[in-house]
Amino acid sequence: MDRFYITTAIDYVNGAPHIGHAYEKILTDIIARHYSQRTNDMYFLTGTDEHGIKIQKTAAAKGISPKELCDENSQKFKDAWKALDINYNKFIRTTDDYHKKTVQKIFKKLVEQGDIYKNSYEGLYCSGCECFLNPKDLTEDGLCPDHLKKPDVVKEENYFFKLTKYKDAIIKHIKENPDFIVPAFRANEVLNQLEDIQDISVSRAKSNVKWGIDVLDDPEQSIYVWIDALSNYITAIGYDTENPSEDFKKYWPVDVHVIGKDILKFHSIYWPAFLLALDLPLPKHIFAHGWITIDETKMSKSLGNVISPTSVLESFELKEPDAFRYYMATSAPCGRDGNYSDDDFKEKVNAHLANSMGNLLNRTLSMLVKYFDGEVKEEFLISANNELVEGSQKLIKHALGTVKVVENHFNHFEIAEAAQEIMGIVDMANKFVTDNAPWTLAKEGKMTECGQVLTTVLEIMCVVTALIYPYCPNFAKEMARQLSFNLDAKLDDLTSDNIKCGKLISKEEIKPVFLRVDSELADKSAKK
Questions:
Q1: How many angstroms separate the CA atoms of 233 and 254, rounded?
Q2: Which letter, b or e, does each residue of 57-74 get, where b requires 16 or more Cβ atoms within 10 Å of its Cβ?
Q3: Marked catalytic residue, from 147, 172, 503, 511
Q4: pLDDT, average across residues 371-393
Q5: What is the pLDDT of residues 94-135, one digit of tens each?
Q6: Which of 260, 264, 268 is nearest to 299 (CA)?
Q7: Distance between CA 376 and CA 146 in Å, rounded?
Q8: DSSP string spanning 346-380?
Q9: Is 51 an annotated catalytic residue?
Q10: Catalytic residue among 78, 99, 100, 126
Q11: pLDDT category, 527, cuts 50, 70, 90?
């Protein structure tokens, strides 16, 4: 794999980031970190969407300019992603000058080639969705089904994009590329939406929407959100209608757009149509994840259950975001909805990260120090000895085989499923320790067998360290330090002889990777 280009949806900045935003960014960061272990050229794009009527209204209500609101809230997103160790390459803002200029060129090109035309229109407009709705899409009470508000009746002269022109080509692409939309069950939903698709408005009158990118040669019109927002995926890497950059030529088409299921229509219908009109290749994959509920209830400002992405770190006094990252990533199967609750968070991260993974490493290294002064002898090594403790070779082989299983899950963006496989190795290693009881072997004077058991487990932990790194980068770095394991190695380079002969660790160098959330040392929230 020569390179991998991945994007998130860009977040709308009329409010601060919440746990739903964090879920998408964590998933994307995990995918990006995983593929960085398989390629030498990883590019991860995220950013903020900063134009439109909602920004205009929110800023006016606050008594500040739209740009001041964008600056303030865009920084909140950047700060949140820093706290969660979201390791993006570029953060695009749609108020960036280069983006605005390229969007204007794209719009003009589509006008000149006849894909965009001007027309008068009267329709039902939902400011929450930033789109016009068909009457049949509304609830029985005439409300937007997503925002439960009555759409405005809007009559104005706008520019329209000939979406119907590309309908058949998009249907054909979806049917011929079953992995274009992930998960696959979403494809039928999109195909159904395509059946009665209409041309779409791609501008708004300046008299109604002042905060937007001007249409070249028609300053009374603002370029509407979807051409503006969706184009970020190509403007960020240097697309130009006349002279695309070398980066654009290298990275496009994108390997995967990671988005929420609520904007799948725009990414799987509108965006492919824009790209076809520009004569550009379509994305390889569009991964639509589900929503995160809070205690089984949909997040809502009116209910007061909107959670800040950093509030969990603060309430549990977590120095690193790894536990939260792991929990969020494993909260739902691919494309399904997930749930956050404090109790479930504590239970899962304690069971998986503290009790199973962290404790396994800690007690294995502690026994190595207790029985062998932290030294690995040659007769302990899997690669140097054919007469090993029963099950050693099989366990190592299974762990290395799991690497390919995990890679295959990531190929299909099955992040929670991949984590389950990783924890499966940890469970097998824990059982291996229990079955072989190295403490008993040492007591019986069977020191070679004892050393082989410990070294086998440490080899397994090297594999686990590499695989858990995308989820828990800080924990993985600490595990790698204690194992003297090179975390920069590619997954293809993992072998059964990562543990080398000689002094591995001293008693002073061993420390818990992750303390239980409810331990006296780790968590003060229980006392509050």
A1: 8
A2: ebbeeeeeebeebbeebb
A3: 147
A4: 85
A5: 999 999 999 999 999 999 999 999 998 777 877 777 677 778
A6: 260
A7: 60
A8: HHHHIIIIIIIIIHHHHHHHHHHHHHHTTEE-GGG
A9: no
A10: 126
A11: very low
| pLDDT of residue 158 exceeding 70 | yes
126 is a catalytic site residue: yes
Q: How far is CA 349 from the centre of its chain?
A: 19
Catalytic residue among 18, 34, 54, 78: 18
Question: Which residue of the set 90, 175, 298, 507 is catalytic?
Answer: 298
129 assigned to active site: yes
Q: Which of 144, 450, 462, 472 is catalytic?
A: 144
Predicted confidence band at 389 (pLDDT cuts at 50, 70, 90)? confident
Integer Cα distance of 361 and 374 in angstroms: 13
Whether 450 is catalytic is no
Query: What is the bridge-based pairing of β-strands 292-294 and 297-298?
Result: antiparallel
pLDDT digits over 26-63, tens only? 999 999 999 999 999 999 999 999 999 899 999 999 99
Token pair in block for residue 388: 């090993």
| Confidence band of 348 (pLDDT split at 50, 70, 90) | very high
For the question of residue 144 being annotated catalytic, the response is yes
Tell whether pTM > 0.70.
yes
Report the helix count and the strand count for the chain, using DSSP H and E.
20, 19
Angle among Cα 115, 116, 122 to the nearest 5 degrees reads: 135
Q: E-assigned strands of 14-63? A: 42-49
Choose among 214, 249, 212: nearest CA to 234: 249
